[in-house]
Amino acid sequence: MSTSDVDAVLKRKKWVIFLVVAALSLVADQATKIWARGSLPVVGHGTGEQLSGGGHECLIPTDIVSRVCQGKAVTVIDGYWDWRLSMNPGSAFGLFSSQGGARIFLSLVGIAAVIGMIFMLRKARLDQKILHWALALVAGGAVGNLVDRIYYGVVTDFVLWHYQSHEWPVFNVADIVLVVGVGLMFIDIQKENKREKILKKARQEKAKAAGLVKDLRE
Question: FRET pair for 185, CA 20 to 30 Å: which of 130, 164, 169, 214?
Answer without folding.
Answer: 169
